[in-house]
Structure to design on (454 residues):
């Protein structure tokens, strides 16, 4: 968090503190054999550094809430000059003093709020689930709760933590010094802010199995005991959850490509002078296109003028893509009508032509339905339209088309591949006789379907 140079402090903080004036700020107790006699091992000093970093972060949040819209003063961090001046016996009790400053009320508030937050997390399990094997085995044993049931409503659930709380800043009490009441939303912001720090994740990690660190500086003098198990079982899971919440999803990089393809849609505008057009495609909405030769102009004009309502057409040509999204039709090689408005299966043909890449629920990327297969299906449907059995028309997983005629007497199924190849299956329901037939000849398959339906 950057402290802006030249920033103005809160109103009411005007007096310059006297130089070299210090006072007792905080203390905590280190229990364990290696701390006996007031001994403070060097590897435990890191806990004092983490403690200071957490308090400073909480103090900055208190300052921002008291001074909405203002930058934290440039000297806010440096003025928090915390030092160990004495180590009392009784295990090891470091006494921490700091130089007086204009921001003392915020530092005091930060200390109280950090220790109160630790009491909520550790003593009442707010926001965490402890993997305690003994408690798991005793399934009827409940997790500890606050002595006063009303306090639970003001608890801090990690699932509720948000870095974008919308609550208006609270008006602080005249003396912050830990007497300020914090709303649940303000506590959530504090937890989110602290839990994103390495100092929170690692607090207590220097302790050994027999050690403990005891905080007792809250207003209620509630003891908070941190052990070697606290960091891996409590602090780190919260840190990891907050890190996951802060992690921005990787932006998908779409590949640009150009290749020949086919799209279906309705031509809605044509400019012969500029040699361009607009087509309302079934899959990609409005797309601009260009053509080069006069023959394509005549094809497009015939389509545009063929009816009062623009018919469904398909255009084959070189196209520009961004990922799976069609951006522009660069050239036109072929223009074809895809829809015959008077045919009973026209609507179903339109539906098949408009299926996207993910139409199949069990396939990651379904192939588009082949226009060649659609054409073949239409030819078969036209040749058999006098049959008393109404056909069903379905998309094939391979991008082909399936046509099926079903009645109590027979089932006739025609599978048309994208190429197209044809596979015909005929079942006589009464006798149970079934026949199969493969061919690449459209006229032959039309004759075979006619025989099966007669």
């Amino acid at each position: 968090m950057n402290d802006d140079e030249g920033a103005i402090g809160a109103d009411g903080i005007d007096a310059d503190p006297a130089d070299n004036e210090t006072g007792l700020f905080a203390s905590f107790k280190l229990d364990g054999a290696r701390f006996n006699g007031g001994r403070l091992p060097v590897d435990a000093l890191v806990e004092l550094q983490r403690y200071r970093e957490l308090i400073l972060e909480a103090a900055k949040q208190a300052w921002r809430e008291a001074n909405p819209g203002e930058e934290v003063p440039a000297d806010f961090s440096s003025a928090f000059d915390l030092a160990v001046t004495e180590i009392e016996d009784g295990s090891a009790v470091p006494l921490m003093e700091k130089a007086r400053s204009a921001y003392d009320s915020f530092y005091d508030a930060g200390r109280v709020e950090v220790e109160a937050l630790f009491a909520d997390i550790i003593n009442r399990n707010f926001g965490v689930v402890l993997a305690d094997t003994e408690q798991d085995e005793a399934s009827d044993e409940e997790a500890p709760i606050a002595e006063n049931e009303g306090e639970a409503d003001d608890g801090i659930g990690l699932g509720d933590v948000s870095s974008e709380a919308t609550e208006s800043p609270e008006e602080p009490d005249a003396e912050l010094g830990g007497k300020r009441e914090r709303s649940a939303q303000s506590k959530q912001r504090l937890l989110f802010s602290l839990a994103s720090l390495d100092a929170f994740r690692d607090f207590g990690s220097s302790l050994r199995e027999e050690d403990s660190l005891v905080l007792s500086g809250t207003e209620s003098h509630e003891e908070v005991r941190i052990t070697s198990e606290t960091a891996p079982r409590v602090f780190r899971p919260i840190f990891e959850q907050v890190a996951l919440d802060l992690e921005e999803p990787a932006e998908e990089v779409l590949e640009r490509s150009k290749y020949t393809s086919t799209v279906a849609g309705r031509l809605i505008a044509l400019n012969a002078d500029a040699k361009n057009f607009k087509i309302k495609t079934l899959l990609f909405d409005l797309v601009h296109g260009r053509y080069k030769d006069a023959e394509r102009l005549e094809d497009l004009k015939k389509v545009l003028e063929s009816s009062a309502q623009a018919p469904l057409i398909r255009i084959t040509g070189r196209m520009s893509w961004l990922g799976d999204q069609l951006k522009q039709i660069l050239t036109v090689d072929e223009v074809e009508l895809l829809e015959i408005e008077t045919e009973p299966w026209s609507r179903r043909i339109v539906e098949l032509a408009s299926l996207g890449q993910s139409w199949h629920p069990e396939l990651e990327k379904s192939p588009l339905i082949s226009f060649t297969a659609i054409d073949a299906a239409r030819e078969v449907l036209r040749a058999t339209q006098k049959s008393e059995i109404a056909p069903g028309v379905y998309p094939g997983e391979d991008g082909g088309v399936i046509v099926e005629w079903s009645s109590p007497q027979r089932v006739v199924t025609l599978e048309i591949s994208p190429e197209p190849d044809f596979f015909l299956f005929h079942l006589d329901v009464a006798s149970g006789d079934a026949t199969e037939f493969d061919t690449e000849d459209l006229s032959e398959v039309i004759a075979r379907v006619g025989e099966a339906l007669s």
Q: What stands out?
A: The domain at 251-338 is CATH 2.40.50.200 (OB fold (Dihydrolipoamide Acetyltransferase, E2P)).
